[in-house]
Amino acid sequence: MENQYYTLIEKQDFFEIIENKFGELAIFIDSREGAPVNPVLEFDGKQTAVLKRDKHLSVVLDGIDKETRAPLAEAEFVLIVELSGKTVERTYGVPVDNVEDVVIEGKRTRADEFVKAKTRDELINSFGAVKRWTCGK
Asked: In which region does residue 94 sit, left (phi positive, over 0), alpha (psi from -120 to 50) or beta (all else)?
């Protein structure tokens, strides 16, 4: 049973974006727990992107190099490479969604982390409810 009742948004301080000879981009970040579910990368065309790994964990990529901005904005997909030290934990393709502004929702819990509470229905689903009763008068 899932017991995480919040959405985490973590800031990735150090990351690397590389381009191969075919013009494909790969983004190297720190590994996170669990496999991503329907991940997407939102990019504002300026210096910030947010990798939404799943409904509960997003990673902020801030300070994107000027030379990288145009190729990233033109990319339909990027390869995400998650590393533990120098070991590759997982790789996966992610569609790039160009947005006007990257919106980071949630409560800042540390300098690099935001927490967003789940909705009532998300909490009920993550609790694994098999029966529901409405009580009271």
From this structure: beta
